[in-house]
Amino acid sequence: METISQEQLTQLLKRITGYNSFRPGQEEVIRSVLAGRDTIAVLPTGAGKSLCYQLPVHLTGGTVLIVSPLLSLMEDQVAQLKREGEKSVAALNSFLTPGEKSAVLRNLHQYRFIFTSPEMLMQRHVSERLRSLRLAYIVADEAHCISQWGFDFRPDYLRLREWLAGFSERPPVLALTATASDKAIGDIENYLMMHSPAKYIHPPDRPNVALQIIPLKDREEKTEWIRREISRASGPGILYVQSRKRAEMLAGLLRADGVPAAAFHAGMEKDDRMLVQQQFLNGELEWICATNAFGMGINKPDVRRIIHDQFPPSAAQYIQEIGRAGRDGKQSLATLLYSPSDADAAVFISLDELPDPAAVRFLAECMNNGEPPEQAGERAGLSETAVRVAAYWIAEEGADGAAGRMEELAAGKSREIGEMIRFAEGDGCIRERLLNLFGARPVGTDVVCCSACGLPADLLANAVPAARNRPALLDWQERIDRLFGVASS
Length: 489
Ligand SMILES: [Zn+2]
What we know:
globular; alpha/beta; single chain
């Protein structure tokens, strides 16, 4: 495609989004897609990744296929496009009734944007229909899921490779992600069969999110700290915890303290999760006590606080989760609570799930005998995730290959946890130490940096107290201040 002038691009941007200029990173990616190149774009959360696939199709014509790993994320993106006036959008996912699904499939060629899940894409009649369309390009959203183990892992995402291999002339692929280690970028390149892709990797630093690490003795001390902090400080905030039980427990305590808070985790019914998410977006809930099931694709620009009850099992996940604060560009604060026993817990949670070679062989044998992997996995006491991952590799590479993959995964996991422990226990500027893990440097100069560099009292006091309905706690002076809109600290 011939080179597009700056003016043409800007006009198009204006027409589609109403904005006059691109945000950093967007334009290069869009130009690369327009040039027909395979492209990997690592843009920080909140940088406007979706525009990168939204805009080029207006110039190329045809259809864009967006493969999105999470249904909630997909629903969000579809809703957003529709809000912007785009009518030519379809979402092919398990939310559709069989009737709706065949209607969408019949009319596929009419859509400009088709969203689908990896699982749906692998259904034969769907994959063939999609491959026969005039696809301008294919987008792998949240592409780091390709190389992740755990909640985000989707074996079918790996099968994208087979689907891509079935094209005689494959359209260019755009992989989008917020954070990616070198390993993840290598995996993306490999699994998506990219041909010397253009890579646009933006530093993961979020200068308006100040970083704080607070050492505490144990879990009880953390619970106390969380209650004290959250009942005096305003949100909106996300409290990340490692287990469903702890999410429920802390949400209960906070509610008892008068904080509008709710739990969010994958063990909840889908409707309940949607409701909590919606209430948080609307501002009816101020705090969410969540496992890592919460957050991907959720666009709430004014999240002021992120608190981690415990560090996540990798720096990439940590940086992604704290990146949900301050998308509006305003000063925000991310706090990591750390106690010495966290290291053991993290290793346990992370590695305990991985099946050992004996379990992999057992699973392989059962699968050979025609037993469904889920059933065999249950007999072997394996988690659903473990079964999903192991079964994928058994099918791909046999029992020995899969056992080797599991060992590789275990080694990778423990390396990542080691990094997080050194990060949490280390000395010196927290921002520098975190970015170091990505081979990056802080981008801003005039920033409120971290608790090692020193944080200003007003940020820690969280300047504006929560506007909650707690009259009993206010003395008359506070009430008057409030009536006159004076922020007391
Ligand atoms: Zn610092």
